[in-house]
Design goal:
The protein is of the alpha+beta class. The chain contains four helices and seven strands, in the order βααβββαβαββ. It has a single domain, classed as Gcn5-related N-acetyltransferase (GNAT) (Aminopeptidase).
Length: 150
């Protein structure tokens, strides 16, 4: 399987973003439908993972200007194939390019270990969001100046 990550926006790819998020969050996890789409989608940078062999969108994530990473979802049949890592690396690279100094997210407890492996640290206590246990996590970003700046 060949996978590519596409940076996109809500205006261009809302249908694909919604389809993945609906399948994962609403159908699989029981998140109320009215909580899935919010006012941040319009302003966020979005990412889509595409299975190039099938030309099929298979995963998504978003980044807000304040460093908030969210709505990361991988279709069930594509999990454990490093797609989440590809998405997170794309988010991190954009954050660095935008000068964002830290990323933070609200991780479901089942995903906490995944984010720890990516360098996120747990901050605070477990809380419930949309009926699911979460924990806040943060990752400081080191911006390395390019040789062009020297």
């Amino acid at each position: 399987m060949r996978t590519r990550i596409k940076q996109t926006n809500w205006q261009s790819d809302a249908a694909n973003l919604i389809a993945i998020r609906y399948k994962v969050f609403v159908e699989e996890q029981g998140v109320p439908e009215d909580l899935e789409i919010d006012d941040h989608d319009d302003k966020a940078w979005h990412f889509l993972a595409i299975d190039d062999d099938l030309n099929k969108p298979i995963a998504t994530a978003r980044l807000l200007a304040d460093g908030h990473v969210g709505r990361m979802a991988v279709l069930e049949e594509y999990r454990s194939k490093k797609i989440g890592h590809l998405l997170l690396n794309s988010v991190l690279n954009l954050a660095k390019a935008k000068g964002i100094k830290a990323l933070f997210l609200n991780a479901q407890l089942t995903a906490q270990r995944f984010y720890e492996k990516a360098g996120f640290e747990t901050e605070g206590e477990i809380f419930i969001d949309a009926g699911i246990e979460h924990v806040r996590m943060i990752k400081q970003i080191t911006i390395v100046p390019s040789n062009d700046a020297l």
